[in-house]
Amino acid sequence: MRIVSLIMGLISISVGVIYLGPSEWVRRPLPPGQETLVVVIESIGPVWPVVFMVTGALLASAAVWGRWAVGAHIVGIFGWMFYGVSIISGSVLSEPPAPIVFGVVAIGIAGIHFGMTRAHQEVGG
Question: Cα–Cα distances in Å, from 124 out to 8, 19, 68, 117?
């Protein structure tokens, strides 16, 4: 299970690093005057790089140290669910609707984090 936590942490860190890159790496252009909810949230500051890099660092640390795995996965649930719901709800509000595939993937990742919390609890980790 620790290896799965580590892999999930590295995935989160990778997504955070990609968000620090050029805009083209994370979104397709929308028609002029339209913004997705993800972009609106991002206008507050580097929300997504922080969410994903902190989540990833917590998961990787928990995997390496063998402690706090449940707490790290709970943070992962909230981070990935927030991102997924932001993508999907923002898409519904845009015209034409933006793609939601990564929103569904993000919510699925949140579900895997939930499963990992249960698995760690069952083995006492």
Answer: 20, 35, 11, 10
